[in-house]
C-alpha cells in the first residue's frame, strides 16, 4: 500500500510525457506509456467547486461510501480486512458492460488513505491476494497496478 502511495506521488511530481486525449469543460484525460507494464497510464483531472473535504467524501474508498452511488463503474466496494485505521484489503466489483459482452470484474487490492501537510488527500491501491477473498464464479478477477485518487486543494 505504501509503495502504491509513493508511486502516485511520483506520478504527481513528474508532469512530463502526458498527452491529452479527451477534454470537456470539467475534466481533462491524458495518458502516457507506463514504465511498469506494457500499456498506458491514464490520468483524469478536474477542478470542482467544493471543499476538498466534500470531494474526498465522494471518492474515498470505504464500505458504504458515496462512490457506489455516483460511479457507474463501481457496483460494490467491501472491506475484506482492516489492517490499520488507514490500510485495508478491499474488493471492488464492476458491472458487466456493452450488453454483457464484458463480464463483471472483481479487484482485490490493498488500499491506503493518507492526508499530507499541504491538505492533499490520497487513496492508493495495488493488487493483492487474500485468503478470505478467493475468486468468485461469474466474475473475472482483475489486476491493478498502483492506482488511486488524489484530492488536491487549490487556492480559493
TrEMBL record:
Keywords: Lipid transport, Lipid-binding, Transport. Residues 1-156 form the START domain. One of its GO terms (molecular function) is cholesterol binding. InterPro entries: StARD5/6, START-like_dom_sf, START_lipid-bd_dom. GO terms for biological process: cholesterol import. The keyword Transport applies. May be involved in the intracellular transport of sterols or other lipids. May bind cholesterol or other sterols. This is STAR5 protein.
Amino acid at each position: 500500500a505504501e509503495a502504491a502511495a509513493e508511486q502516485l506521488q511520483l506520478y504527481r511530481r513528474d508532469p512530463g510525457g502526458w498527452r491529452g486525449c479527451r477534454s470537456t469543460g470539467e475534466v481533462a484525460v491524458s495518458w502516457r506509456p507506463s514504465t511498469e507494464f506494457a500499456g498506458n497510464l491514464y490520468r483524469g483531472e478536474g477542478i470542482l467547486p467544493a471543499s476538498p473535504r466534500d470531494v474526498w467524501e465522494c471518492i474515498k474508498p470505504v464500505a458504504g461510501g458515496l462512490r457506489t452511488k455516483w460511479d457507474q463503474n463501481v457496483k460494490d466496494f467491501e472491506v475484506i480486512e482492516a489492517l490499520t485505521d488507514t490500510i485495508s484489503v478491499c474488493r471492488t466489483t464492476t458491472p458487466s458492460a456493452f450488453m454483457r459482452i464484458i463480464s463483471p470484474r472483481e479487484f482485490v487490492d490493498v488500499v491506503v488513505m493518507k492526508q499530507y501537510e499541504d491538505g492533499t488527500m490520497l487513496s492508493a491501491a495495488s493488487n493483492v491476494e487474500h485468503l478470505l477473498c478467493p475468486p468468485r464464479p461469474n466474475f473475472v478477477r482483475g489486476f491493478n497496478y498502483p492506482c488511486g485518487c488524489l484530492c488536491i486543494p487549490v487556492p480559493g
